[in-house]
Amino acid sequence: MDMEQSRQKRSFAPRALPHEEYFAPGHRGCQGCGPALAFRHILKALGPNTVVAEATGCGEIISSPYPQSSWRVPWIHTAFENTAATAAGIEVAYKVLMRKGRIPEERINVVAMAGDGGTGDIGLQALSGALERGHDFIYVCYDNEAYMNTGMQRSGLTPFGAFTTTSPAGKVSKGQSTWKKDVPAIAAAHHIPYVATACISYMSDLYRKILRAAEARGPAYLHVLAPCPTGWRYPSEKTIEIGRMAVRSGVFNLYEIVDGKKRLTVKVRERLPVSEYIKAQGRFRHLTDEDIAYIQRRVYEEYEALLAEAAQI
Amino acid sequence: MARIVGMEISAACSEAVTLADADVIAAYPITPQTHIVEHLSEQVADGRLDAEYINVESEHSAMSCCIGAAAAGARTFTATAAQGLALMSEMLYIASGMRLPIVMALVTRTLSAPLSIWGDQSDIMSVRDCGWIVLFAENGQEVYDMTLQAFRIAEDERVIFPVMVCLDGFHLSHVIEPVEILDRAEIAPFLPPYKPKYRLDPHNVLTMGAFAMPEYFSEIKKRQDEELVSSYHVILEVWREWEERFGRHYEPLNPYRVDDAEVVVVIAGTFAGTARVAVDRLREKGIKAGLASLKLWRPFPRDDIKRLFARRRVLTVVDRALSVGGAGGPVANELRAAFYHEDGRPWVASFVAGLSGRDILAEDFVEMVERSLEYAKKGEFPPYEMYGVRE
Question: How far off is chain B from A117, nearest CA to CA, in Å?
Fold first, then answer.
């Protein structure tokens, strides 16, 4: 089965992995960069008829130092908070130009990409507007859980207890004091055709979800957990392992919502204690057993709620 | 065939966008711009204009959407005012820096606070350095003509810059005037469909919006500046062609009775009409007054300014914008700077008037000119003065 058949069958076999690279090697990402893996594989899945609008952030800064570029598909960066709006402009332009016969009629995947801050903090308004208006595009949030590009400042998607440079642990602080903002749920509240979470450690699941997102007519939102060795403080060869632990511990759950119906796509049979995930990363090293127990409790509750919700359907 | 129609000037602006066959309009409503976008929505709804009209959720997204659409190769339009312009100001610089030929109608309005929906030019003056071509219209016909000219100028391969057409909020936007409307056959040779040299195309891969390190940044900006400055020649060329085709004359500073004038009023926008009446009254009183209506603000028409104003005794510059705590009205200051090194430079009297829709009557212009001449007699000018403010 090749990639084209994969696209048609909406399934993915690892042997179908295309040899073509649309995110070129030689970019300036850190060793073990999770987001770079996400870009590489998202583009492999989508193929060359793809245009990317990317927000300011890690992804932009590692890939586009003038006069070099890592992008082998058309790519545009304009600003930080507006990627969904830029992508919306591209989508409507293709639609009207095809209608008026100025450019050939064809399917072009319009993809917006932004980090967790560019999506859930500063970019939330533009994202909501574009989802509400129903543009036919794929929005990818690559979530590395802080403003890593500017040196690891907290975002609304930084997890509870994590140390960042603007949520430091101190005598009266445990680091990030708030729970991770649930952006996929916000996206789903726009009643768009497709919402999914994914993780770079579950590649077949990621491929399948990208193919479904590309197939959706209307907005598709894909939230990809992309671990960051630099900001999460773990050895760079452990990126895949850390992502896997996030899913296996129930800290980050893999599901999709198709036309409002939620389904877990990776079910974890034996859940890992969150302490194993937390203790593997330097950003949590100040947490006490009591703190970890609190996180474990909340992760458990959320996972049970998710199971119940997914089971009802 | 061209025909003269009485219409609201906002509608005239929208009619020009329809005639230009714009592909994408992305806009967010704000007083006093609303009539332009309402009228355009109707044109699209009625199928008179085959465009995608995007009701974005903010002006920041309006300009971002226009940038995406223009980068994909569409002819793109938006309109805004005041707070909307302030909100999208980040994207104005990016539209110019990325060389995207977007056209925008700016219905000029005062910037908050206090909140005021009424007209002045504090909004446009706040983004003087954003790298757009900026035109000022004086009446409905100019709004119509300049909107069409804007697309042609913006898309010219020697230019490729965004263009802003400024029309005064309410004093122009909400007024009904006779406007000569063109038809598609007449406009087609002047404004053919937009054929972008570069666009986001999967069959011709390129990267747009790469970041520049310090070793490239200054060179890129110098080129942007040089090319914006040299767009002046294209603008004049387009205006000459417009005159040949449609018989209406445009120039960067539209002069009135300046040939022998010793004092010249300088103003941008629709109050130039009132200033013309004042010039006639001053002439009746024996004062050799004239007027220059500023049509082209960026690129700054330095040579026209020097040619027209050299050896005048006094310029009475009326700014509808206050540079709070600054050195003078924005237009006045740039005129001063243009003449700083010149022999026989005119005195520049800087008046700030007409803020937030406050009227400037003909007698006010007469008073400002007479006051300017008194200052000249004494050889002493205040840096600027706010005219017509209750003490």
Answer: 17
Three-state SS at A112: strand
Asked casually if ipTM beats, i.e. exceeds, 0.95, the reply is: yes
Residue B120 lies in a domain: yes
The verdict on B212 touching A (C-beta cutoff 8 Å) is yes
CB–CB of B135/B295 below 8 Å?
A: yes
Residue B213: its chain A contacts at CB < 8 A? Answer: 65-66
Domain ranges of chain A: 3-312
Alpha-carbon gap, residue B113 to B122, rounded angstroms: 12
CB A251 within 8 A of CB A274: yes
Residue A259 predicted with pLDDT over 90: no
Residue B229, in any domain of the structure? yes
Distance from CA of B202 to the nearest CA of A (A): 5
Strand partners, A94: none
- The 3-state DSSP class for residue A30 equals coil
In this structure, the number of other CB atoms found within 10 A of the CB of residue A97 comes to 23
- Quick one: B170 and B58 in the same domain? yes
Does CATH number 3.30.360.10 belong to domain A3-312? Answer: no
How does pLDDT run across A268-287, given as a tens digit for each residue? 889 999 999 999 999 999 99
Task: Please say which residue of B213, B246, B279 terminates a domain.
Answer: B246
Residues 6+ apart with CB under 8 A from B243: B249, B250
Rounded distance between C-alpha atoms, residue B281 and residue B162, angstroms: 40
Q: What DSSP character marks residue B193?
A: P
CA distance A122 to B66: 19
Q: Are residues B78 and B63 in the same domain?
A: yes
**Ordered DSSP codes for A122-142:** TTHHHHHHHHHHT-S-EEEEE
Q: Using a CB-CB distance cutoff of 8 angstroms, which residues of chain B are in contact with residue A92?
A: 24, 26, 52, 54, 65, 69, 74
The string of pLDDT tens digits covering residues A12-49 is 677 778 889 999 999 999 999 999 999 999 999 999 99
Residue B98 structure tokens: 């990325």
CATH number at residue B90: 3.40.50.970
Residue A107 has pLDDT above 90, yes or no: yes
d(C-alpha A154, C-alpha A232), whole Å: 12
B236: CB partners within 8 A, 6+ apart = B251, B252
CB contact under 8 A, B50 and A99: yes
Q: DSSP string spanning B227-266?
A: HHHHHHHHHHHHHHHHHHHH-----SEEEES-TT-SEEEE
**B42 lies in which domain range?**
3-246
| Contacts A48 to B, Cβ<8 Å | 202
Do B173 and B232 lie in one domain? The reply is: yes
Measured CA to CA, the distance from residue B46 to residue B32 in angstroms comes to 23
